[in-house]
Amino acid sequence: MLLTFINMNTKAQVSFYGDPLPVKVLNTSKNESFLALDRANHRLLFTRDSGLNSDGNIRSFILTVSDLSPIKIYSGNQYLTSSGTSLMNNDHFINKTHFERGRYYSQIIAMDRQKEEKELQIGDLDNLAPTQSGHISADGKRLLISAQKKNGYGVEDIYISKKENGRWSAVQGLGFDINTEFQEISPFLAADNKTLIFASNRKGGYGSMDLYITERLDDSWRRWSEPRNLGAAVNTSGAESSMVFFTDDEFAYYISTKDSDGYGDIKKIRIKSEIEPAEIDSVKSTPIFVADAESFSFILKDAKSNITLKGMAFYMNNTDTVWLEPKGEQLLWSEVNDQPESIEFKAVGYLSATMVVDVEDVGETIEVFMEPLSKGNIITLKNVLFHRGTANFVEGTQRELDLVVEMLNENPEVTIFLTGHTDDSGDSRLNTRLSEQRVLTVKNYLTKQGIKSESIDGKGFGGSQPKFSNSREQSRKLNRRVEFEIVRD
Q: Which residue segment(s) compose the domain that 21 sits in?
């Protein structure tokens, strides 16, 4: 079966193929609901209920999906839903709702990489519904929220808050094209910042809740194409909600109660999306990147297999994060100035890499080799250096360790085994002790950044495992190193 939805006012097109399939590895007898995208790490997020607590509130969890396994990343004695993460940073936007003194209270928090929480101060948001759902845009500057307000259109409606000058605006309704006297919930804004999919129990549907698609017609966020039902390929006599998808993935995911193991289950359906992602700084009308001769192109490669990877890259300028433009298998950087730039490269399942690019090399295509986070892979921290005969870091070492911190935060199922090494100069017993001290120095740095100590183990080997010749200082110094081995449960 093939369904295609096209709005002639835009280039966006979404097609669904075949029959929906339950994602059995994620579904349980409990309620799975409210999907979102972790765009920063290319992962799926969802909520799972876990019964009532003593206060009568639903205890729930937010889980992420890694290697098809669900991993709990947030829990609480209230109803929790995820609004996902943007490509601009790794902040995770979480909706919390609890019942107290005869009514529901909701808040939205942003949790950063260090698990620190900050409540968003969003004006005119006073949700009266038992749940609150939403989704953050790819650029991190638009937050869609489904909530029930006293002066709303009906029951739950969809609103938008915009981040301007570092602050979130008061909520604004998406208008009568979207909101009705019925429920509108689980909004998902695709990567083009125009295509919106949401669930509603408005009249004319197939069941108690159906999925609809529409597209934004202007910058007011109040004029939309007429919402179109996704049809019998997706919607059933049950309740369907919360569809999400990455633009370049094979499947879209959504929640359905039809033939479920519990109240709601996660299902997937094959999708073909021709949606063109918006420029990451989508507030601007002109593109950031212009392909010309004054540019670099980068190709990401698996350091073990040499296969080409799909990933992303960015650098910080004086005011913002600048993302490199994807061009086929390459990443393009055209913002060339007279200073070298440190660029960070990311790919799902790989340790991030950094590179300082010299503008004298403009016009080159540069291969960036990424270390896979596969079990047993041993990764040398090439820029983690120590002053000779000490366990004291050479200046600049911390930057590479920060990438390890980032990796462990983004991959909570991974633990690492550190190994410390020296060259062969001096007493072997002292070298072993020195290598152990270097391992401890690295572990202490990682734990001070919030990494749990049980995620890190290690041992010092002194000079017994050289990788390079000890005959010359130029190669001998490369043996004064720290490595880590990937361990997965």
A: 2-273
